[in-house]
Design brief:
- Keywords: Membrane, Transmembrane, Transmembrane helix.
- There is one protein chain.
- With about 180 residues, the protein is mostly helical.
- The chain has one domain.
- It has helices at about 1-30, 35-55, 65-85, 95-125, 130-150, 160-185.
Length: about 180
């Protein structure tokens, strides 16, 4: 029972922090203005890990590589702690755990996209003028735009968020299978 509780808490903390690191990458890739409250909050929570890495790993091509590497390192630490909690030697994680950590980062990213898409869809029905809507639209528009070309509006309803949500679910299934394959190597 204590092992299950520890796993839950580790999963919660590392998933949220990893998602914040990926959100930081996403915000910078889409050039979200840094002076909004979401950006400020994400920077405050993640600066302690990203700023030292940024001295070593510069951003190239508009991608915040320091934040991406921080998310991957976060996933590696998570895997080491999970194996230790279960009672397996953390050394058993290496080297295949490094690949599993990449898959874990991709899962965190897919979950982040799903939750933000769901939040945007709910807010568009409940309160389309909410302060978070412009931020969500700014972040999700690059992902929704190609889907809108394929899925037309139906009766005035934009079904592209549903399409994006479905694609992320499919991606999560593929990533779960990849994680299993890498774990057995």
């Amino acid at each position: 029972m204590l092992v299950d509780i520890a796993r839950l808490l580790l999963d919660l903390v590392f998933s949220l922090f990893g998602a914040l690191l990926l959100l930081r990458v996403w915000m910078q890739a889409t050039q979200l203005p840094p002076r909004n409250p979401l950006s400020q909050g994400v920077f405050q929570f993640t600066n302690w890990m990203v700023l030292p890495l940024r001295r070593i790993v510069p951003g190239v091509g508009g991608i915040d590589w320091a934040s991406l590497i921080a998310a991957w390192l976060c996933a590696v630490v998570y895997l080491v702690l999970i194996t230790a909690v279960v009672g397996v030697s953390p050394v058993a994680v290496f080297p295949r755990g490094l690949l599993v950590a990449l898959v874990l980062v991709a899962k965190w990213g897919a979950n982040l996209v799903m939750w933000m898409t769901l939040l945007m869809a709910v807010l568009s029905w409940v309160n389309p003028r909410a302060a978070a809507m412009p931020i969500l639209q700014h972040l999700l528009d690059p992902l929704l735009r190609p889907i809108r070309r394929v899925i037309p509006m139906v009766g005035g309803f934009d079904l592209s968020p549903l399409g994006l949500f479905l694609l992320m679910q499919i991606l999560l299934i593929v990533l779960a299978r990849l994680s299993q394959i890498f774990a057995t190597l």
